[in-house]
Amino acid sequence: MARLSSKIVPQIFLLLLLHKASAILGAEHYSRADFPADFVFGSGTTAAQYEGASFEDGRTPSIWDTFAHSGRTGGATGDVACDGYHKYKEDIRLMVDTNLDAFRISISWSRLIPNGRGPINTKGLQYYNNLINELTSNGIQPHVALIHFDLPQALADEYGGWLSQKILKDFVEFADVCFKEFGDRVLSWTTINEANVAVLGGYEEGMLPPGRCSTRSICPEGDSTTEPYRVAHNMLLAHSAAAKLYREKYKATQNGKVGLSIYIMWFVPYTNSTEDVMATQRAKEFYIGWILNPLIFGDYPDIMKNRAQKRLPAFTKNESDQIKGSFDFIGLNHYFAVFIKDDSSTKRAIKDFYADLAVNFEFPESPAYQYPVMPWALEEMLEYLKQVYGNPPIYIQENGQMTRRNGTLNDTARVEYIHAYIGAVLDAVRNGSNTIGYFVWTLLDCLELLNGYGTSYGLYYVDLDDKELTRYPKLSAHWYSNFLKGKSTTPDPITQLKEKMTISWRQQF
Ligand SMILES: *[C@@H]1O[C@H](CO)[C@@H](O)[C@H](O)[C@H]1NC(C)=O
Ligand SMILES: *[C@@H]1O[C@H](CO)[C@@H](O)[C@H](O)[C@H]1NC(C)=O
Ligand SMILES: *[C@@H]1O[C@H](CO)[C@@H](O)[C@H](O)[C@H]1NC(C)=O
Ligand SMILES: *[C@@H]1O[C@H](CO)[C@@H](O)[C@H](O)[C@H]1NC(C)=O
Ligand SMILES: *[C@@H]1O[C@H](CO)[C@@H](O)[C@H](O)[C@H]1NC(C)=O
């Protein structure tokens, strides 16, 4: 999904260069054969960003549709998106051309079970069966998320969605339907995508659905002091209950894996002062430990408990036992690192997650509409997960470069970024990281939640002015495809590719 655009902080650029000079750099020359044979390379999308057909064949609105139609995404909605509901076969041919092993999708709960619980929508069931069959019959593994920032609006209206523990029963029933109907072909399940960001975006900052926060000029409703902690707690309980169900009822016959995903910016101290170093550690605990400590150790980090006190719900012994170890992999979405400054002295009006955390973020410099290229940050992050969390199996479920969505197919910045980050993954794997897969975000330029149709991450451009929504491969699609077909990444892959590439499309861009 889309991310915050980086603020320009000139002095940070210097810091970044200093850091880089001393830091590990990703492998530069490599080929697919350098990775373990069973390492999975893929790309992905999600229901709300890809499918469109929002009101077709019995689907009801999700909280994403409600949020988009409230005007809070600048008018961009997923009503049509990339029209994947009708065009998936064409897109799977692109995946075959690109030589993907795997493709991430998510299931729109309100398409499959329109009221959130109760009867299954046979048209929705048919769509996901068709999509999954088309993937598997083309040799592409479907990796499926159950929640990707969407939830039936009916459940939000009825009891507040994730705010209520009533969600646990409904979520587990939804998961049960998915495991039962699709689990013979789907071997990788992510219960909730970016649990930490779903919570912060949806209940702390109000910039993701359901758009709740304490600041009334931004959000009509919400309470940032307690809701983010409550919702994350309910998500952990829901995840672990679904994972338990899978283990008890399906694992023996289906033999798939269940995991949870988090978004990680990596954190680097702004200076070497004790305050900034401690603030950086705190940021890791608040963003990563919030979800991973319960999953791996059975409880929240002590520093969160100390700072949030009663606003952070406590796990009962049973809950803790159920959550601890309730995963077969961790999904990581990662794009860049930020520099952390201690901000303990500022008194904040609202006693919320950010007040408890008490840091300032400084964003590294990068060209407009692009992320900074910091592959060393991914290596440090994977090393940290190895050392602190016992080296869990990891799928990097999202990584990729943002650009303007202006029709250029010559996306050299994306090629450079992906090339550098796959090199970083290789270095980490060579040094013992248990990373087992990597997915480029994203296959197609569809809807981005934060930027609508303004920026893009796709390997393929989608022409929204053309009623056929024609897809065109960018340079990055050629690069990724060459890499996946086993060609080694030569010293100057971009020049060579550019020579081969025919830009057959509107030259006026
Ligand atoms: C912090 O210390 C490390 C190791 O001594 C050094 O490489 C780095 O440049 C220092 N960073 C800053 C911002 O001074
Ligand atoms: C806790 O777990 C035990 C054993 O699994 C079970 O007997 C008990 O009912 C559970 N208690 C609660 C409150 O869920
Ligand atoms: C389109 O975006 C690319 C990458 O951000 C940029 O280099 C190029 O100048 C842009 N072209 C136009 C016409 O805006
Ligand atoms: C693609 O962009 C690069 C630099 O961004 C430029 O050097 C090259 O000429 C462009 N190629 C085409 C075919 O436009
Ligand atoms: C490689 O792994 C070893 C052992 O876990 C660790 O000590 C070392 O710091 C790692 N190297 C890098 C570059 O992360």
What does the model show?
It is a single chain. The two termini are 25 Å apart. The protein has one domain: Glycosidases (TIM Barrel), CATH 3.20.20. The chain is globular. With 509 residues, it is α/β, with parallel strands linked by helices. A hairpin with an 8-residue loop joins strand 14 and strand 15. The N terminus and C terminus are likely disordered. Helices cover 42% and strands 14% of the residues. It has 18 helices and 15 strands. The strands form 4 sheets. The chain has an 8-stranded parallel β-barrel, surrounded by 6 helices. Strands 6-8-9 form a 3-stranded mixed beta sheet. The chain has a two-stranded antiparallel ribbon with strand order 11-13. Helix 4 packs parallel to helix 6 and helix 9 packs antiparallel against helix 10. This is Beta-glucosidase, lactase phlorizinhydrolase.
